[in-house]
Specification:
two-stranded antiparallel sheet, 4 strands, globular, single chain, 128 residues, 38% helix, alpha+beta
Length: 128
């Protein structure tokens, strides 16, 4: 059962997108997280996190992204199509990268899950 949930969660990513290039469509929004621990990249599922805690972490991320969407709408600013957030525990600082071009859509033929897995692969390659 946990492995099935793990596979399903892998389809989520920390990026949120939609075909027209914004995070406004709930049906295509995706988010997920991964961690670097002792020089190794691990997904939320590989961390052995209690499912209820994992869901709370993802809900917290969703709340933050909803706030970003509200602020963009309020100031008539484009909504990002991708947000990559990295927290460095040692420096206690966030590094955030935004994209505004279409990333995950039928037009690009790239799923949010693929983008997430590609990001993990790139981070693993950086670590080696």
């Amino acid at each position: 059962m946990l492995q099935k949930r793990t596979a399903e969660k892998q389809k989520l990513c920390s990026k949120r997108s939609r075909e027209d290039g914004s995070i406004n469509d709930l049906s295509t929004q995706r988010r997920n997280v991964f961690f670097e621990l002792d020089g190794k990249i691990k997904t939320l599922n590989e961390m052995g996190t209690v499912p209820s805690c994992a869901m709370e972490l993802l809900r917290t991320g969703t709340h933050g992204l909803d706030k970003i969407k509200e602020i963009c709408a309020k100031y008539n600013y484009p909504t990002p199509t991708e947000i990559k957030m990295i927290y460095d525990v040692k420096t206690k600082k966030f590094n955030v990268a935004y994209q505004y071009k279409e990333i995950c859509s039928a037009k690009t033929n790239i799923s949010a899950g693929e983008v997430f897995m590609n990001w993990i692969t790139a981070k693993k390659n950086e670590s080696t």
